[in-house]
Fold this sequence. Notes:
By secondary structure, this protein is mostly helical.
Amino acid sequence: MKNTEQLINNIIGQLEGIKRMVKAEKDCVEVLTQLKASKSGINSVINRIIEESTLNCLSGNTKKDKERVKKLIKEIVNNN
């Protein structure tokens, strides 16, 4: 989960930067660009947590089964 924690810290940093940009009344396009980047980061964390949680639930199954579930999860997540 260390990588997930780092992603969350990166998102927090991005949001703090956005907060400063809004306070400084920076260009709205720049703010929106940073918000989209933060949203993408949040989606990455969500996907990772879903994947890790599902794989942990399947810890008794074979590697082939885990890879199949991993592929399924990615397919589901990419369609949202």
